[in-house]
Amino acid sequence: MPPNSSVTSPQVLQQYTEGNLSFVGIRLQEADFTGRILQRIDFCQADLRQSHFGKSDLQQANLQQANLSEAILWGTNLSLAQLQGIQLREADLSGAILIKAQLQGANLCKAILSGVNLSQANLEAALLLDADLRSSATHRTDLSSARLCHADLSYVRLDGANLNGADLQRARLCRASLGQSREQSGMAVDLRGANLQGADLSYADLTGANLQGVDLRQTDLTGTTLAQADLSGAQLPEHQLC
Length: 242
Description:
Layout: H1 9-17
């Protein structure tokens, strides 16, 4: 498929069934691929804004630098997909499966990611401003240097996540699970260098978390569990200082 060519969704599906996986740079806004199996398809740099991929199978797909702003991807399987630099602004990914997906530098501002599975995904330096990550699972997820300002991570499970250098200003982490149980030895969350100014960590579990040098003076720690957390060099609110 020539780069930047226009094509219809039925043409894409027909060519895919015939063995063509390359649709680099196509323009196909508001396409409907709901419930389709499109494993390993190459949509690199494609314009797929406002397209529908709900419940589709995009495992190992290449969507690097593609534009899927405002797209519908609820329940979509994007495991092992290449999504570096993708535009997913205001996209609906609720309940999507993104296990081991590569999302470095992705734009997920205002995206709906509630209930998503981001286990072992890489979101280094991703933009997640105002994103909805409520009740998502992020087992060993790399969120280092990610921007999560004003994001809602209430009830999220962040066991073993890397948030080193992440910007969590005014993020909501109410009742989030960032700690490690006895069965999760070595699964502590790394928050070194994170910006938690104005963040809500009320009733969150930070058992064993690495908070070395973190400024928590303007963080809501009401009811927060900090047992066995590494607070060396951290700055705590005055009411929590001994």
